[in-house]
Amino acid sequence: MTPDTDWDDPAETPAGNPADSPAPVAGGRYAVPGAAGRAAALLEREGRVALAGPWGAGKTTVLKEVLRTLAPASGAAGGSGSGAARTVLRVTAVEEDRGHVFGALAQMLSHCGPAHLAVLSARQNEVVDRILHRGADEPLAASEQLPARLAVTALLASGRWILAVDGAQWLDPASADVLGYALRTLAAPGLTAIVTERVHGRAQAAARLLGGHPVQVDVDPLDAEETAALLDAHGLPTRWAGPLQSHCGGHPLLTSVSCTALARLPASQRHRPAMAGQAVDAAGAWLRSTLGDDARHTLMLAALTSRPSLPLLLRAGRSDAEEHLAQAQAAGVLSVDPASAVHFTAAALARAAARSGARPLRAAAHLTLARAVGDPVHEVRHRALAADLPDQGLAEDTETAATTAREAGERALAAELFLLAAELTPPARSATRIRRLSCAAQEAACAGSVDIARQAADALTASRAEPTDQVTALLAVVDAHGQAISDLEPLLARCRELAAGHPDLLAAVELRAAIAANVAHAAPERALRAAGRAAELAAAGGHRPLQAAALTMRARMERVLGTADAPGTLAEALALGIPAQHSGIRNSAQYLAARHAVFDDRLAEARERLVELLALAEHEGDAEDLVDIWRSLAEVDTRLGACAPALAWADQAVRLSTEAGLSMGPAWYTAALTQSAAGSFAAALRTASCGARASQEEGDGLYVSRNLWVMGAVQLHSGDVADAVASLTAVAEAERHVPSADPGMFRWQPDAVEAFTCAGRLDLARELLERARPVAGAAGADSGPGAALDRAHGILLARDGAVEEASGLLHRTAAAFERLGLPLEQARTLLALGRVERARRRQAAARTAWEAARTVFDDTGARPWQELTRELLDRAGGSAPAPGQAAGPAAGGSRLTESESRLADLICQGATNQQAAQHMFISVKTVEGMLSRVYRKLGVRSRTQLAAARAAAPPAPDTRTPPE
Fold first, then answer.
1. What percent of the chain has pLDDT over 70?
2. In degrees rounded to 5, what are phi and psi of residue 335?
């Protein structure tokens, strides 16, 4: 038997991760051991497990990790097989083995020593000897099957075995029959079996082997956070997670190959991750190993069209398209939705499929698709892609198609078509070519297509176009970069040179400079000055849309700095009457008006405005418009206590940011914020950590601080006070240099005051509270930020011993939050009130407060807070916590908290305390304390006892939310 060569284990591929162990991923788990941990636990409990995943998903690595996890209880293959030790028998099959009769059995039996075979009768040993010495091409005799069944079953009945079959789809039929018979005859735990199968969906060969409907563990794709952690492990920017996720679809092998290739690039070429050629090569190997020539030709046509579907492929002459797509779907290459639309699971697979034919074959395919597509815009696109030489008529048709696509809101398609039209334009028509390139750049900016924007800008520079066209294209490159604009100052400087003497062009440049000053340099005063210059220049040039955009930016900065001019400036921008979609909904005065309502906790008004803008964005906006509106809706619904919708909005924002290659820091911040209220503290901590790293790499100081705030708040709620202080101190330091005068925009101070109080750093807490009070404004407790500061003050008073005064203040604060319509803040205040009442030894009052909080959390679906409240109520009869003690989980009770359960899983998977601390984003000291609580709750004294206790326990319902 030959080793498995289907590249299923990324660590064994030439271009894969050379490390022996899988690369760590965000949130304290490995991409592979997440599945390995589930499989090991199920194998211990059920005795039979099928492990399924497509080509290259990492099934072999998972199998190795499962066997390594169980190794302490397993004997060596050549041991005696006696006692409680289990012996691992591993069979690895490849495609070439299917024709070798009893080949898999021969491989398995070759691992058995004389002591194992001594339990067999002389006749059975003869059967074993016959299996071991068969010729590769020797046919199966009818008289051989039954003796083989009986001999192998007798062997496997003689001890305690773990049978591991890697590649059930390639087992020769004779071996499959014998192993299946033994597995049907012998029960676990005497014979335990884990079988892998290359399949996307329900395992079939493994199910037949294991008998009936075994428990199945799927090796899932990496999510964006796991991709970010793999990038980090390779020393690459985690902000590339979005584009890499789009390129590789979360496929472990393709992602690992891409990371390795990108890590070899010189630093000068690491501006933005292009699709690695090695990933496309690996994707091509996937296609060749799973699909025949005809099926790959069908997939080439599907990959060459923008909207592949089964009806289109049938019209293109692929009569076997349905069968080919079914084969590809079973291989995990693509999916076909109920409307018969085809979706490749990774862009690298689509690229590999499109390149599976030479240029003449692809050109012919485009012409075939042009006749079959049925849409005039896409018909022209295929004709343009089939052309090799300039063609004036075709260029005009392509420009017309691009205009149609633009009017339909398909900005990426419009950008591609304008660029194609420019390339098809005859050299003699240079002015027309320049105009088309300018249009391509502008559409690329709206679509976030950096590559097309750069191609157009480079072509315009090479053509010696007029400054207006060059500036337009260069600014399009700036816009296409989204939040990642920290390195674009030289580009803006070049734009200023080219725009000299053109007020409207200079206005456009100054507007981008204002955005860069705010996002990349955290310099609101500088941003305000640049926005003011942009507004003046736009007015002088008579450019009303640009003037409205500049005034909107100025109002945004005035709000940040707390000046009284912000409402008037925003009203001036709105009065210009520019439609929200004109220059991007997210940049419009209408959207800023909605954001101001969010800052002021006018949440019903904010939601109404945002829903109206969402309807517009769905028809006329771009990906960034949708992401920003979804993020705002998630924030609003979180504050309103609508937890389920908030999570849905945030998930959509993360998904589209990933697909569109947008900056991930803002989307991960919002996701972490909603998860901290509605999902799980563990998920929030992982997501915020990824967001902070991605924002740091992009030079986006705004979202570094925001992600650190969520990290600190979650660490505080989880009882990790030291880590909370570290995170929130970092926020305080950043805000000390760039103070925001508007507390409604960034509400970190109350959590920082509470964290400093819980850590006993009362001077710091008082100092921050005194600084924040004037900023909160005259509204005080009648505003969300003011009431939050009152809650923090109440906790500080309790720590100082003024428990009666603290109780009164917290009572009033809870009532204020109820008036403001902020239920989660109200319930969180009731938790603090209960702890103060308990410190006053008023147990009934404490329980009343906690019961009231639980009612609110139950009504809103705030999962992590439900668990935290349950913990408080469960131990309500114990000793009182010290005033100012953090609200995290504590000892007592037999049920593990989410963090404790997660730590226990990591320890059972073999993680050291240091590794667990890194994975959970907490300190080693916190891990040690938490592990002690786990031991006490479960009544164990060692890691081995812990693993046994966890394996024997029934599975708890999984209430965690993605990413997981």
1. 88
2. -130, 155
